Amino acid sequence: MYVFDPPRQASLAVQASDARFPVRRIFCVGRNYEAHAREMGKDPTREAPFFFTKPADAAVDTPCTIPYPPLTENLHYEIELIIAIGKGGARIAEDDVMDHVWGASVGLDMTRRDLQGEAKDMGRPWDWGKAFDQSAPIAPIKPMADVPSVEKGRIWLAVNGTIRQDADLSDLIWSVREHVSILSHAMTLAPGDIIMTGTPAGVGAVVTGDVITGGVDGIGELEVTIGPRS
């Protein structure tokens, strides 16, 4: 018995299916491509990966239109490979990680860069810059049986048809097997967890009316339009 009706389960579409993938939590890997680390003014050495989170209901299906969010004048796109966990576990060995992965997709880690920068300067968490409404548009998830690879393949993003990000999954500093294993040593992963694996170089700002397209070869593509301010 609840004091009011609980919200609907956050979920994402599944490719070629009417079934939906229930989203439990969203974990994001920070600075997981060397060139992106450099463009953000950081040392790209292979230090231990770090993570931040978004709420489950930040995830939205694509194609979609999302509003330009409040409190920012510098909204950035970040294209990312998405990993969907289907089997929970703690302290998962690298060799066993793929046994826990249900599927893969491509998504955007939308970022209020000015708010994130202020938080960094003040030594505060990144939540205000990262964890806002509809900040994780994600294409339909492809079951792993149909995914050719999460270790190599082109990952790209364009704004209004102009390529802005163009890299390969092989450029990841920490591979999917590695960073999922490391995450599982910090907390128990559960079915429905989503992991956004980091973005390559070329991040930048978008404004109302811009159309973002992007994809990961063999996995999926997305399209997101930036709507008026919310």
Task: Explain the overall architecture.
The structure is a single chain. With 230 residues, the chain is mainly beta. It has one domain: Alpha-Beta Complex (Fumarylacetoacetate hydrolase, domain 2). It has four helices and 18 strands. The strands form five sheets. It has a six-stranded mixed beta sheet, covered by helices on one side. The protein has a five-stranded mixed beta sheet with strand order 6-18-17-13-14, with no helix packed on it. A hairpin with a 6-residue loop joins strand 1 and strand 2. It is globular. It comes from Sulfitobacter alexandrii. This is Fumarylacetoacetate hydrolase. GO terms for molecular function: acetylpyruvate hydrolase activity; metal ion binding. Keywords: Hydrolase, Metal-binding.
Supply database-style keywords.
230 residues, mainly beta, Fumarylacetoacetate hydrolase, domain 2, six-stranded mixed beta sheet, five-stranded mixed beta sheet, 4 helices, 18 strands, 12% helix, 35% strand, globular, Fumarylacetoacetate hydrolase, metal-binding
Short structural description:
With 230 residues, the protein is mostly beta strands. It contains four helices and 18 strands. 12% of the residues lie in helices and 35% in strands.
Count of beta strands: 18
Envelope shape: globular
Structural class: mainly beta
CATH fold description: Fumarylacetoacetate hydrolase, domain 2
Write the layout of secondary structure elements.
Elements: E1 11-13, E2 20-22, E3 26-29, H1 34-39, E4 51-54, E5 59-61, E6 64-68, E7 75-77, E8 79-85, E9 101-108, E10 111-112, H2 113-121, H3 127-130, E11 136-138, E12 142-143, E13 154-159, E14 162-168, H4 176-184, E15 194-196, E16 204-205, E17 211-216, E18 220-229
Parallel strand pairs: 3-15, 5-11, 6-18
Antiparallel strand pairs: 1-2, 3-4, 7-10, 7-16, 8-9, 8-15, 9-12, 13-14, 13-17, 17-18
